[in-house]
Amino acid sequence: MNDVYTTPQSDLDLEQENNSGQGKVENIPEGVKGWSWGAFSLNWIWAIGNKTWIGLLVLIPYVGFIFSFVLGFKGRQWAWQNKRWESVEHFQRVQRKWSFWGVVVLVVGFLGVLAAIAIPAYQDYLSRAAGN
Question: What is the pTM of this model?
Answer without folding.
Answer: 0.76
